[in-house]
């Protein structure tokens, strides 16, 4: 994408100048972990406008006590109503009160009505009439709440069952869950209920996990530890079975799609036709290399047809449901990586391809909506370091310039489109701007600034950040790196270096956003006298399918080779002490940290691996089998990538950190590796965080980073 690529060179040249220390730096204090880490008592973050939204084509800006309407043409703000007025109406009905207005929405463009989400109620309040129009009570344990603005129907779950308007839709035994996200949130799935356009039918997932092996986790908060079993299908083992139901609230009847035996199949990306007569979804085989777009009759549940199929020798990974054109229900947009990058394809409901709408060596990340008048699709696109918002004409295929062209062409942009597609709220950051929010006209590109956040660390001594590229281990591919130097950097000194690594799919560490994606701990350690380095190796996100799937069937191998190229680059720098190189990462980054310590023991002196995957045979099916196949079909790959087999190679200092309630990367990974090290007579260190899952959150997160810091201070 040439539009975005233009500014990449600017980022590379200019970012070295960002955050540089002025002559008064020695008089400024350095931020602490409490300042830099979420959960810290003095955590500093960029100012934001919470709850910013559209009411038709009028921008709504909620505050604590007041709700303002912003004219997108002029930027003029008008007071719409106050929290006091809303609370008077709520208290009259004994519904409690709001502490702020960030939890209200205005989903009805033609009505003066608010939707208020309370812990135990959905409330619709008409501010012009000053009265509550409707209220929908919810039980205390209601979860996965899904309110439909067209009908006022609300779905929710309690324990493992689904309810609609207080009526029990399902009555399932233990081991079967309904109305919740399935397939462990892979394939773009983030919820379990899907209302039809008019809200009179509800599609939902039913997941039978009764055949899935239970994994034991222990709750240590009880005096006698209590067993907490979770259903965890490990690679190559028996998986759960998913079916899709359709519930009619009027008749209180449910039918299930007749998709045949759901064994070893995934059902993803559910979408309704505009007339709600049929339901579309993508069916994927367990090998995840064959996807089918299927259409089902919403009344009978019978298969109406398979519109088309998509295959790949490695894997197909559908992430987005089809989206129908609002002006032509006989056409829809399908997203695919078939040409190597995720792009938009226009299809007819007969399954025939009409045209490819976008193309190039960049990715469509999301469809934001439509401009019906101009027959345009509005979308967000990603290119290496940055992202921006664009429109493409369905008729001509012509793509617009980025909507932010008059403000900045660099940075990481997110967009929220107005009802007509005439305006977009552009929320973005650049390496030197923590957050900026503009309203932009999608035709004229005229913009109105709503917020330019101040640097939350402007009164602190901050390190310098640079971004550049090196070649991957294949000698051809460009890899982006970020290097952070201490605020008092002395080019004549030799500094220890810590590599922060993730390296896996669906993650990008080096960006064109605020501080080039650097984390608070990176800033902290640089100011303590370390060079901090991060490299997005092959296998990571936003560089296309070939860049990602080069790691197929041997996770951690090619990624490690690229990280070693990063070390070679570091050793070429006169200020890096090549004998003091450490590495830290979490989850996939924990796997990478451990693998680098074991495969390259002469390079890495110290490592801290958090929540590491040690043996891919212990990891869950959906993610693990996509990238590794099954242990039965890829025994060599699983053997090669099993870090227990390399336990005897450990020479440096390695700290493993794991959460005792980790249900994503179960504690067996770390514990089995410790046993392998005992057998091999090597000596890693271990730290456990009780009561946490796959990451350490809240106040304990500061403790975590202090623990990591001390380990590097003691050993590097």
TrEMBL record:
Keywords tagged on the record: Signal
**A single BP term in Gene Ontology:** proteolysis
Organism's domain of life? Bacteria
Q: Carries keyword Flavoprotein? A: no
Write one Gene Ontology MF term. serine-type peptidase activity
- Which stretches make up the Peptidase S9 prolyl oligopeptidase catalytic domain? 524-715
InterPro entries registered for this protein in UniProt = AB_hydrolase_fold (IPR029058), Peptidase_S9_cat (IPR001375), Peptidase_S9B_N (IPR002469), Serine_Prot_S9B/DPPIV (IPR050278)
Signal sequence coordinates: 1-25
Looking at the record, the residues that make up the Dipeptidylpeptidase IV N-terminal domain are: 117-434
UniProt-recorded name of the protein = S9 family peptidase
């Amino acid at each position: 994408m040439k539009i975005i690529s233009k500014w990449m060179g600017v980022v590379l040249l200019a970012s070295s100048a960002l955050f540089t220390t002025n002559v008064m730096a020695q008089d400024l204090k350095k931020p602490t972990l409490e300042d830099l880490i979420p959960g810290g008592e003095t955590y500093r973050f960029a100012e934001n406008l919470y709850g910013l939204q559209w009411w038709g084509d009028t921008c709504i800006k909620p505050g604590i006590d007041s709700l303002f309407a912003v004219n997108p043409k002029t930027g003029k703000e008008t007071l719409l109503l106050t929290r006091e007025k809303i609370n008077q109406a709520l208290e009259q009905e004994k519904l409690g009160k709001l502490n702020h207005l960030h939890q209200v929405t205005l989903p009805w463009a033609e009505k003066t009505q608010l939707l208020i989400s309370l812990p135990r109620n959905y409330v619709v309040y008409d501010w012009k009439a000053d009265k509550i129009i409707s209220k929908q009570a919810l039980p205390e344990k209601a979860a996965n709440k899904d309110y439909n603005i067209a009908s006022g129907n609300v779905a929710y779950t309690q324990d493992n069952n689904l309810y609609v308007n207080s009526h029990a839709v399902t009555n399932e035994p233990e081991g079967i869950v309904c109305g919740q996200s399935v397939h462990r949130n892979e394939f773009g799935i983030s919820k379990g209920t899907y209302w039809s356009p008019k809200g009179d039918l509800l599609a939902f997932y039913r997941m039978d996990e009764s055949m899935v092996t239970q994994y034991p986790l222990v709750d240590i908060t009880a005096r006698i530890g209590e067993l907490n079993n979770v259903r965890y299908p490990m690679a190559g083992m028996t998986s759960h079975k998913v079916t899709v139901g359709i519930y009619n609230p009027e008749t209180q009847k449910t039918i299930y799609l007749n998709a045949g035996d759901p064994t070893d199949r995934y059902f993803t990306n559910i979408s309704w036709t505009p007339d709600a007569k049929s339901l579309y979804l993508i069916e994927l085989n367990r090998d995840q290399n064959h996807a089918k777009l299927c259409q089902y009759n919403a009344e009978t549940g019978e298969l109406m047809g398979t519109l088309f199929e998509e295959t790949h020798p490695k894997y197909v990974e559908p992430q987005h449901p089809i989206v129908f054109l609002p002006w032509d229900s006989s056409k829809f947009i399908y997203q695919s990586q078939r040409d190597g990058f995720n792009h938009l394809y226009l299809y007819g409901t007969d399954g025939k391809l009409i045209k490819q709408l976008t193309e190039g060596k960049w990715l469509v990340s999301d469809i934001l909506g439509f401009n019906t008048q101009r027959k345009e699709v509005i979308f967000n696109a990603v290119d290496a370091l940055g992202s921006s918002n664009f429109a493409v004409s369905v008729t001509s295929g012509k793509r617009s310039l980025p909507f932010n062209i008059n403000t900045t062409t660099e940075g990481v942009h997110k967009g929220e489109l107005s009802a007509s597609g005439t305006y977009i709220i552009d929320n973005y950051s650049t390496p030197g701007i923590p957050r900026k929010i503009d309203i932009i006209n999608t035709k004229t590109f005229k913009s109105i600034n709503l917020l330019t956040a101040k640097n939350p660390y402007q009164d602190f001594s901050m390190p310098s950040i640079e971004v550049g590229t090196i070649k991957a281990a294949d000698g051809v591919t460009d890899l982006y790196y970020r290097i952070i130097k201490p605020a008092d950097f002395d080019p004549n000194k030799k500094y220890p270096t810590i590599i922060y690594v993730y390296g896996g799919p669906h993650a990008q560490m080096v960006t064109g956003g605020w501080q080039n994606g650097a984390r608070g701990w990176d800033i902290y350690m640089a100011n303590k006298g370390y060079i901090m380095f991060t490299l997005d190796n092959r296998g990571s996100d936003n560089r296309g399918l070939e860049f990602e799937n080069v790691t197929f069937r041997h996770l951690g191998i090619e990624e490690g080779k690229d990280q070693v190229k990063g070390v070679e680059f570091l050793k070429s720098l006169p200020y890096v002490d090549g004998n003091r190189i450490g590495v830290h990462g979490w989850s996939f980054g924990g796997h990478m940290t451990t693998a680098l310590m074991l495969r390259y023991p002469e390079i890495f002196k110290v490592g801290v691996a958090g929540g590491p995957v040690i043996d891919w045979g212990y990891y869950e099916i959906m993610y693990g089998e996509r990238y590794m196949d099954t242990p039965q079909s890829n025994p060599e790959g699983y053997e090669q990538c099993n870090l227990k087999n390399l336990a005897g190679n450990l020479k440096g200092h390695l700290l493993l950190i794991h959460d005792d309630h980790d249900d994503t990367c179960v504690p067996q990974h770390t514990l089995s590796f410790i046993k392998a090290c005992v057998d091999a007579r090597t000596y890693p260190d271990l730290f456990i965080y009780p009561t946490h899952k796959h990451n350490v959150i809240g106040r304990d997160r500061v403790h975590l980073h202090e623990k990591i810091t001390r380990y590097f201070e003691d050993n590097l």
